[in-house]
What we know:
This protein has helices at 8-12, 18-31, 74-78, 92-97, 108-116, 347-354, 360-376, 385-400, and strands at 58-59, 65-68, 82-85, 121-125, 135-142, 146-148, 151-156, 161-171, 175-185, 190-197, 203-213, 218-225, 230-239, 245-254, 259-268, 274-283, 288-297, 305-314, 320-329, 335-343. It has 401 residues and is of the alpha/beta class.
Amino acid sequence: MTDSHFTVDAARALGGPDWLVARRTAAADQLAEIGWPSSTEEIWRYSPIDRFDIGRYRPRGEEQRRVVLPTIDPALEAKGVVVGDLRTTEDPEIQKWFGVCSDASPDAFTLLHDAFVGGGVFVKIPAGVVVEEPIVVEHLTAGDGLASFPHTLVVVGDHAQVTVLDRYAADGDDHLCDAVIEILVGDGAHVRYTSVQQHGSSVWQVALQRAHVGRDASLQSSAIALGGDYARLRTESLITGEGGESDLLAVYFGDGNQVLDFRTLQDHAAPRTRSDLLFKGAVEDQARSVYSGLIRLRREAQKSRAFQTNRNLVLTEGAAAESIPNLEIEANDVQCSHASTVGPIDDDQLYYLESRGVRPDDAERLIVLGFFDDVFDRLPVRALEGPLRAAVDEKLGRLHA
C-alpha cells in the first residue's frame, strides 16, 4: 500500500549516485506491496501505530534538509578519515557498506526509508586511525506534513577508534522522521556513538540504529530521547566476533502526551562476548514510555555474558510505563540476567529530604536527577551531561508550574 506522493518516479527524482538511485527505486517499487504495521502485532504492542497514515505525508525536498558536518583536521584527512554527505562523497566504501546493517533487520519503515533517503552522513575511519575529538553531526529538518529520512553510516576499520555524536531535530506539524543509523565496528576497534533526539512536539519518529561488532571490538552506544509526539527507536547490536563487547545506554523523559517507545536487541553470535544494557526513563502528565528488549544468545555464543536493566519513574497519576524484558538462550554456558522496574518516587526518599528542610519540589528534582546519575556518568561525550541535566530539570519545572 502506498500513496501518490511516495511513487517510484518521486523516489527516482531525488537523484544522487547511480547505485543509490537504483537501490531507492527498487525499494519504492516494493512499497506498493507492503502492509503497514498495526498494534495487533507483538512488536508494535503498546504503540499508537494504528494512528499512522502514510497519506498524511509527502517526501521533503532537499531544500528542507540540512546536515551540519564538522570540519575535519587535515592531518586526519591525510590518513583517510572521511566525514561527508552520502550523496556527494565519492568513496567506493559507501556502496559496499550502505545497507549492510539495516538490510539485516528490515521492516516497513526501513523500506520506506530506503525508497526516499535523499542523503545522509558517511563517516569512515581507516584501520589503525585514532580520532581523539568527537565527530558531531546535526540533522535538521522542518516542514508541515513532510517526511524526512536522515541516514548515518559509520564504518570503523580494524583497531581504529572514534566518537560520533548525532543530533536530530525535526519540527513542523505532522512531520515524520524515518531515520536509520548503521555502525560497523571492525576487529579490535572501539566506537562510542551517541544520538540526541530533540524533535518538536508534533513530530513522529520511527528509527533504527543497528551495529555489527567485530572480534575483540567494543561499542558504547547512548541514546537521549526528549522530544517528539510519538518517538520509536529500535537499538540493535549484533556481536559477530569472539571477545566483542556492546554497552547500550539510554535516557528518556516524556511529558505532555508524548509516547517514547524503545525496542532493543542484544544479539550474541560468537563466543566470549559481552553486552550490558541500561535504559532509564521518567514520565509525567499523560506521557507513556514503552520498553521491550530481547537478549539473544545463539548456540555459538558459549561463555558469553549479557545483562539488561530497564528502570522507570512514573511521576504523576495518568502517566504510564511498560517494560517487557525477554531472553532467548540457545547456548548452555553463559551468564545472563534482566531486570525492570516501574514505579513512583520513593516516599522514604522524599520524606528524608523534606525532613532536612528541602522543599518538596526541590526534593523531587534531586531524586529524579539522582535517578539518572549512573547513566549520566557513563555518557561517552561528557559535555552532554550539563545540557541533559538542564533539559530534565526544565521538564520537571513545567510539571511543578
